[in-house]
Structure formats: C-alpha cells, structure tokens
Amino acid sequence: MEQLLLVFITVVEKENFTRAADELHITHPAVSQHIQQLEQTIGTRLLDRSNKFVRLNKAGEIVYHHAKEILGIYTRMQCLVDDLMNHAIGNLSIGASYTYGEYILPHVIAYMNERYPLIKPTITIANTKEIEELVAGHQLDIGIIEGGITHKDLYFEAFAEDSMFIVVSANHRFINEKDLQFSRLMEEMWIAREEGSGTREAIEKLFSEFQLRPEKIMEFGSTQIIKEAVEAGLGISLLSQWAVRKELALGTLQILQLPELPFLRQFSFITQKTPFKTKALEIFIEVLRKNKKISNIMNDITLP
Questions:
Q1: What are the HTH lysR-type domain coordinates in residue numbering (predicted)?
Q2: pTM of the full predicted structure?
C-alpha cells in the first residue's frame, strides 16, 4: 500500500504519468498499473485523465489528503524502529515561518550538519498558519513559528525571543526627529505581511496595545519584498532584527527610536503530542532548546 500511495501522490503533484515515472525511476506502464490497483482497492476512480492533464476528482481529493498523512506516519514509524539501533540518522522534515526559516534556520541546519551529518533535513517555508496545518496533518515532523496556534492537540513550546523594530528608508523624515510619538506613525503607509503570518500577528498586537490603527496598510507575501518596498520609500514596517541585519549594516534601512520598542515576541516550535519521537527530531529539539540565544548559533552575525 505504501508504494501505491507514493505513486498516486507523485502523479497528482507532477500532474502527469510520464513525469511521475521519471521522478520515481519506473516505467509509465508501471505507474498506470499502480494507479489502477489503488483505484481497485479504494473501489472508485480517483483521477480524471485526458491526453493533456491528470486531475483529482472528489474521491481523489480525499485519498490524496489522507495519503500524505499516512506516508508521513509510516516514515516516522520506520525512523523510530531505526532509532532502536541508537543511530542519529534519517530524514527530518522541518517547517518554518518566513522570518525564522529564511534568516535563522539556515544557520541552525549548518550547525546540525556539522555535528550530525547523517540526519537529512528537508525544509518547508510558509506562513505560521500553513506550517501549523502541515504539522497537524503529519506532513512535517516539526514546525517553527512566530505566532500562536489554533490546533490545541499540538505540542507548543517557546524557545527563543525575537526583538522587532519599526524600520524606515534611509532618508525618511522621522529618522532624526526627537521625542517621536507612536501616534505620528499612523500617518504613514504600513507595509505588512498577509493574514496568517506571525509577523502580521505581531503588527496587529502592536496596534492593539496602542489602540491605534493606520489608515493605510499594504500587504505583501514576502519579507524580502517588504524590505525592498521600505527601502524605496513606499512605507514603514515592523520587522525582526534578524530580517534586517544586513540592510542596517549597509545603511539602506534605519530603525526609528521609540521608547516603546523593541516589540518582543517568541519563536516557538510545534510537534505532534506523542511520546514517540525519532532520534533526529529529539536532537533537533535539543539544539533549539540549548541555543535559546540565537547568537549562540549565528556567531557570525552582529547587529549594528
């Protein structure tokens, strides 16, 4: 059954039998045979086929969703059995929201790779809400997020603190203003991440604390685009110290000095609530816990 589900998932994601065959290193007829066998087992057709496309039907959507979850559980079961040999070896699927995933996680993975080269991580970067859904669906072993969670059946643990600052372009009119009040910033265009992002959640909490809200908010789906927009003078934003360290060093972005800042939030990790964890996952969690100060890992980073 594992192989049938793997072939089915690959066909769905490649949207083509030939591309799926190439990905799995098997023949096109073998792919067709696996799909037919799965459909016979389930008792209905799962795919709508034509010469140009392969698409899920309603039954296929149900099977695809659960097949991803089943394979995730099966892979972890195999890793747990392998761990009985006391080897820190195997795959580790890590998800992270954008700030941690793009600016901090690469340094953590390099740290892990140097000490545990037999652990093979795969990385998924998405917003906090999406990472939570993937962990809840058994498609990720662990997720690192910047906001809260809604799935109460997941284990949640804060492990590091992050400082966030309001950043502006290098020639912004407020840079040299003394005794700047937060209320003045409501006149500005705020550049923010989309709903579901941990960074967006932080901005909303900041507005709520001051009981103020700007009239103009522009959304972007990437921290990198937000930084470019702020550099270009389009508006201002609240961003993590780790996301803007290079721009601050280069002088292309500046931090506004307000007595209420920095805004503090927590980086947290989420996993399934289970006593059974692979050794690779246990080691990764221990690395996160022992390095509460991110600079312990990112020792090549200095903030201006």
A1: 1-57
A2: 0.66
Q: Let me know whether 218 and 292 are in one domain.
A: no
Domain count, the chain: 3
User: What are 99's two structure tokens?
Assistant: 């700030």
Q: Could you tell me if 74 and 43 lie in one domain?
A: yes
Q: Same structural domain for residues 179 and 259?
A: yes
Q: For 149-193, what is each residue's pLDDT tens digit? A: 888 889 999 998 899 999 999 999 998 888 888 999 999 999 999
How far lies 156's CA from each of 142, 145, 146, 272, in Å?
Answer: 10, 10, 12, 9
28: domain CATH number is 1.10.10.10
Give the range of the structural domain holding residue 125, as residue numbers without chain letter. Answer: 87-160+266-300
